[in-house]
Amino acid sequence: MKRLIFAGRGKLVAVAALSLVFTQLSAGGATAAAPLPAGWDLVSGAGECLAAMDNEAFTLEIGTFSDGRYAVKDSVNSAGYSLTSGNGRYYLLIVEGIDSFYAGPVDGRCEWDFFQGPKDLPSWTHMVGAGNNLVLFYNAGSGLAVTATINANHKLIQQETYNLSPGWTHIIGSDRADRRLVFYHSGSGLTVTGQLTTRGEFVQHQTYLGSDHPRVPGPGWTHVAGTNDGGVLFYNEADGHARSFYLKDAGVPGKLAFGGNFILASDFTHVVGAGARGLLLYRNTGFAWGGYLDEVGRWRRARIYGGS
User: Fold this and answer.
1) What is the DSSP annotation of 142-170?
2) How many CB atoms lie within 10 A of CB 58?
3) Does the reported pTM lie above 0.90?
4) Residue 293 near residue 278, CB atoms below 8 Å
5) Rounded to an integer, what distance in angstroms lies between the CA atom of residue 223 and that of residue 241?
6) pLDDT by residue for the chain (308 residues), tens digit each?
7) What spatial distance separates the first Cα and last Cα of the chain, rounded to whole Å?
8) Beta bridge partners of 60
9) Are the beta carbons of 275 and 262 closer than 8 angstroms?
10) Contact 21, 263 (CB under 8 A)
11) 85 in helix, strand or coil?
12) Strands 2-3 and 156-163
């Protein structure tokens, strides 16, 4: 097992003091659409596809998602399933009990195809798709982490085991082509960026200390979502405040390049990335915003689903 303590590793990013300014966004330019289905409990994205699960209705649906526009393609009975983060082409579904399955969109058609997975998986608090069929499993209580790949025969192959710092509240994948990961602690604001190699080895890049500075993540965000092309959105469900970044190396591996501070609608229960650069912000009433981060990390809203 490899020991890796985030707080003491990586490049510590220092910034100068600036005033905090959030931009209030208007509804202009967004297309109105019918509400999405109400009651989604779990939502996840993978590649060009978006999947959502209603545990009460036992429904698992999947559809295409492009720049904020969602179109359902397939639906199956989801009794006993728990949906986790998407990973490139595949999703990972865990059946409640001793069995587990992979399920995934096939050849970009966003239709379900199920594969038998391993038995008796340990208890993980986070299962994160990093791209290129790599998955990170993490337990926030112990700090134990395992990386694995899903091979061409749909088998889960364990790669590396790490003893990470415990207590991370959010771990997301971003820039799936380069297998980027962002670790975040909402209480302290501590943020770490890194990358998985093709062999599942974790390489830590940048460390951002908790701060109220408007150009670093900072504490208090309730949701963090990554886009497939390197965008990262931090969102506060209570007041709708959001902060965006792009993972751009520019000579500094894993640097979070600041995009902007925004005031979005509040009370979104799910914020997920799907499509090339898309983001879905969803309430379980069916009200949702579909949008994307542009080339410099600014939020662009493309579609409003239903009333508030």
Assistant:
1) T-EEEEEEE-TTS-EEEEEEEEPPS---E
2) 13
3) no
4) no
5) 11
6) 554 544 433 333 333 333 344 455 444 567 888 999 999 998 988 777 888 989 888 888 888 888 788 888 888 887 777 777 666 555 666 665 556 666 666 656 787 777 776 666 677 889 888 888 888 999 999 999 999 888 777 778 899 999 999 999 999 998 777 899 999 999 999 999 999 999 999 999 999 987 778 889 999 999 999 988 889 999 999 999 999 999 876 678 899 999 999 999 999 999 998 877 889 999 999 999 999 988 888 888 889 999 65
7) 49
8) 53, 76
9) no
10) no
11) strand
12) parallel
Are 205 and 10 spatial neighbours (Cβ–Cβ below 8 Å)?
Answer: yes
Residue 2 CB neighbour total at 10 angstroms: 11
Take residue 105 and report the two structure tokens written for it: 């969109």
Type of residue at 38: A
**How many residues make up the chain in this entry?**
308
What is the dihedral sign for C-alpha 181, 276, 125, 234? Answer: positive
Rounded-to-integer distance, Cα 140 and Cα 152, Å: 30
Which tokens hold the place of 267? 């009370």
For CA atoms 82, 83, 87, 90, give the dihedral sign. positive
